[in-house]
Every structure is written in C-alpha cells, then in structure tokens.
Amino acid sequence: xxxTFIMIxxxxxxxxLVGEILGRFExxxxxxxxxxxxxxxxxxxxxxxxxHKGKVFYDELLEFVTSGTVVAMVLExxxxxxxxxxxxxxxxxxxxxxxxxxxxxxxxTRQNLIHGADSAEAAAREIALWFPELR
Length: 135
Ligand code: GTP
Ligand code: MG
What we know:
By secondary structure, the chain is of the alpha+beta class. It has helices at about 10-15, 20-30, 40-50, 60-65, 80-90, 100-105, 120-130; strands at about 1-10, 30-40, 70-75, 115. The protein has a 4-stranded antiparallel sheet with strand order 2-3-1-4.
C-alpha cells in the first residue's frame, strides 16, 4: 500500500466540490488516513511549492493557495500517487480528459481545484510537511 498527499485548493472549497472530490477517491477504493481543513500560511505555501520558486507564476500561485480555506488529506491505495494523479487529470485544460477531476470541473490552469503529489518522494515530503503529527 502507498500513501499520497492530496489538497483541495481554495476554489474547490468555495465551489462546494469537497464531497464530490473526496467521494471519487473513496469510491475508487482509496482509504482516507488523515484529513484537515485549514487556512494555509505563507510559510507553509512556500515550503509546499518550493520546487516552483523563481517561476513566473510562483507569486500568483502562492497568492491563490493562501486565498481561502483548503482541505488537505492523506489517502492510501495501491499505487496511490500515480492513480491519484491520473484521477486529477492534466494541468493543461485542453489535455485534462473528461472523467478526471480537472477535466470534469475546471477550464483553468490556475484555479484547478486540486493538488496531488507527483512522486513517492514528493508524497513523503508533503505528508510530513502537512501532517507532522502522523509520524
Ligand atoms: P499541482 O498538483 O498543484 O502541483 O499541479 P500540477 O502538478 O498539475 O502542476 P505544477 O506542479 O506544474 O504546477 C503547480 C501549480 O502551479 C498548478 O496547479 C497551477 O495552479 C500553477 N501553475 C502551473 N503552471 C502555471 C502557469 O503557467 N501559470 C499560472 N498562473 N499558474 C500555473
Ligand atoms: Mg505539481
């Protein structure tokens, strides 16, 4: 079994899609291990997105993720990281397939509802960052 880190971004909470999104993971067979709702500090946002530091969209990205409440969670399944990314769908809206979360609910590259860890290493790092109490 593998664990992944998933975060429903402020637009997902504002659009009342938390239940829809969590339901998709549960119905697929992911086990919910931990979940919290929180307002992200600038510091947590910077640490979470440190790989994007220096990119043109970095400031806008931090502003967005700190603009409202998010729902952070740890989900467990076989191959959870890869499966989670497949369920989320591509970053480019024209590539986000129908049936994926982004492909069904957003046309935006920026307000794209959800974050999912993109590797086992990223998942471990993000789980430790967001859920230090889990260790
Ligand atoms: P995350 O799961 O949120 O990490 O998305 P991702 O892995 O599909 O994309 P990536 O890690 O490359 O980018 C992180 C986030 O930065 C995206 O989800 C977007 O919110 C934002 N982002 C990426 N590229 C752009 C861009 O070209 N412009 C803007 N404004 N935002 C971008
Ligand atoms: Mg990413």
